[in-house]
């Protein structure tokens, strides 16, 4: 176990170092930070003063090591657009994105897993054909289109749900949540449903495919030959082994929801990281863009490491191979 963990941590460090190098290149060579701070009409003396303050007059190696040290301390500099520390801006926006991503994935799991199990057990029924057709639509329709349709139906036509913003929030220390207010919950419904549509379709099809494969396996046939009840075969033996490969996809998709909810947050003007990144790109705010790149890479690295460790804990074959 220790050797397995050390190997994964070593790969993690290499990936994060490479991503930090890319972010450093972006930070230093994507646009002109001096122009972003002072504007086009700044004097040469003012430019030199800002360059010296930012350390742009130092050798590239020294600047990279300094940047790396700052990143390790959680210091990503100041936002050119907002004039605030980048980490403070990200921490302020992070709760909104986390709540949106977990809400959307929660909806997807509550609907997708049961539908996948049902469509595998009742694979020739009319209900399964309806579910497969609906899942094909869910996978094919773009997320922004789903969001626009939801706004048109529930906000414009029916007027029962808000179409933008996060509603009223409650401060719990550094975390702000909308789960504790009616307007916050109402504002969450449409964007969470919008990002859940694709996830429901994907999870349902994945669970169905894995479940069908497990049902045809020898140990399930042996359990059926022993006379075990069908419900026990499906939900105790088959489903347990079906969900092992599904864990990886769900974890990566959750990371994708956190990292790439740009379109959904833009459509619903949800004040999260995705909208922040889109605004930073429009304003060429390189400090936030580079910090976003590092944090998202770190998120996926942590998720992959957690999935690897979970696999190691669940699958005895990996433990046996590591022991050899």
Summarize the structure.
The chain has 324 residues and is mostly helical. The chain has 14 helices and two strands; from the N terminus they run αααααααββααααααα.
Write structural notes for this entry:
The protein has 324 residues and is an all-alpha fold. It has two domains: 2-72, no CATH class; 86-282, MetI-like (MetI-like fold), CATH 1.10.3720.10. The protein is built from 14 helices and two strands. It has helices spanning 2-29, 33-38, 44-54, 60-72, 86-121, 126-140, 143-157, 182-215, 218-225, 230-259, 262-267, 273-282, 286-314, 316-323, and strands at residues 170-172, 175-177. The protein has a two-stranded antiparallel ribbon. It is globular, with a radius of gyration of 24 Å. The mean pLDDT is 82.
Number of domains: 2
Element-level helix/strand string: HHHHHHHEEHHHHHHH
The CATH architecture of the largest domain: Orthogonal Bundle
- Under CATH, the homologous superfamily of the largest domain reads MetI-like
Structural class of the helix and strand makeup? mainly alpha
Number of helices: 14
- Uncertain stretches of 5 or more adjacent residues: none
Shape, principal axes of CA atoms: globular
Strand order of the largest sheet: 1-2
Distance between the termini: 12 Å
Which range best describes the helical content: under 10%, 10-25%, 25-40%, 40-55%, 55-70% or over 70%?
A: over 70%
């Amino acid at each position: 176990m220790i050797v397995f963990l050390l190997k994964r941590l070593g790969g993690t460090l290499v990936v994060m170092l490479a991503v930090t190098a890319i972010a450093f290149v972006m930070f230093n060579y994507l646009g002109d930070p001096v122009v972003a701070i002072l504007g086009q009409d700044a004097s040469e003396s003012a430019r030199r003063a800002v360059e010296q303050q930012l350390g742009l007059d130092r050798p590239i190696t020294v600047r990279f090591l300094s940047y790396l040290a700052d990143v390790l301390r959680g210091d990503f500099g100041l936002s050119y657009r907002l004039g605030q520390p980048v980490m403070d801006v990200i921490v302020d926006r992070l709760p909104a994105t986390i709540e949106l991503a977990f809400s959307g994935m929660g909806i997807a799991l509550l609907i997708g897993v049961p539908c996948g199990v049902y469509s595998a057990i009742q694979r020739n029924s009319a209900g399964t054909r309806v579910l497969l057709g609906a899942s094909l639509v869910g996978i094919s329709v773009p997320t922004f289109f789903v969001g626009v349709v939801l706004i048109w139906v529930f906000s414009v036509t029916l007027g029962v749900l808000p179409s933008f913003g996060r509603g009223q929030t409650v401060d719990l220390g550094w975390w702000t949540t909308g789960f504790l207010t009616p307007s916050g919950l109402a504002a969450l419904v449409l964007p969470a449903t919008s990002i859940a549509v694709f996830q429901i379709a994907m999870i349902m099809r994945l669970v169905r495919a894995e479940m069908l494969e497990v049902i045809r396996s020898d140990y399930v046939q042996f359990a059926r030959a022993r006379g075990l009840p069908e419900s026990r075969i499906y939900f105790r033996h088959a489903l347990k082994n079906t969900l092992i490969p599904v864990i990886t996809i769900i974890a990566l998709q959750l990371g994708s929801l956190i990292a790439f909810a740009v379109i959904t947050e833009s459509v619903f003007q949800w004040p999260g990281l995705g909208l922040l990144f889109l605004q930073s790109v429009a304003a060429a705010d390189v400090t936030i863009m580079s910090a976003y790149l590092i944090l998202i890479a770190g998120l996926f690295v942590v998720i992959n490491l957690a999935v690897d460790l979970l696999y190691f804990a669940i699958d005895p074959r990996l433990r046996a191979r590591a022991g050899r």
